[in-house]
Amino acid sequence: MTEKKKPGKLLIVVAGPTAVGKTELCLQLAQELKTEIISADSRQFYREMNIGTAKPSAGELAAVNHYFINSHSVAEEYNAGNFEQDALKVIDEIFAKQQAAILTGGSGLYIRAVTDGMDDMPEVKVGLRAQLQADLETKGLPFLLAQLQLLDPVYYHQVDRENTQRIIRALEVCLSSGQPYSSFRVRKSSSPERPFRILKICLNRDRNELYARIDERMDLMLRNGLLDEVKALYPYRHQNALQTVGYKELFEFLDGQYDWKEAVRLLKRNSRRYAKRQLTWFKKDQDYTWFHPEETTAILAFIQQHLPDKIKAGT
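^ thats the sequence. predicted structure below, dont judge the formating
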């Protein structure tokens, strides 16, 4: 099944790993369908993170209206639950004018928040995140992982143990509620009803091709001044938004943990690993139909099968 059958407007989801080619394709689709783009890339929300997040260029942003690009500061706390609420409001605004909208990005949790809703989570104690961030700084990641293993062994064996953001989030819930984080992650028996139809597309390339594109993107980011961007962000390095590939490696380089050659190697290696995790996430969702990003004609034909006649592409 690729589309949730509901009457009315159509939300077209275009997902895929980093550097696969989502931006270029979605620009073409938005122009053909005369609609707008909602970014579900959780790193592109932040105004201060530009080079390391591969945001659309100024020209691309001018060509098609985008939402949730440069919408927040790294100093703000913003999560998938917030995004669900905000994105649904934007989708309503687009659907007041258009019959279709595009939601795109590589952040699977943020896409799922919009399409399927978020699990209900308990309130988190004030100041707990700051304390956990301080523990990360002073005691290191192994200390947090040991806590997580004790408080929630189920999630400890599931989580990406290099993803400090998810580890801290899990500990927040464990320590605030007195219950394992995994106990709150049981999927709801049914997704919330959305007043629109959802069509899911995922992009992929041959692994060697994708990894070469990732390496090339990292080289380009470094030539364009990624290190200077990271230096400017150093005072904010423990903010949740910056616990991500492309920034963590260069923060650690600035801390003297390794030399420049090793920093570049880790930057590329971790970016490839991130892409692999993204693909694993999307492959678990059977609603996606998969395409190579250069199959533009086939993708448009696939979308047209689900569009009302009055908004066929190019009309």
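The mean pLDDT is 91.
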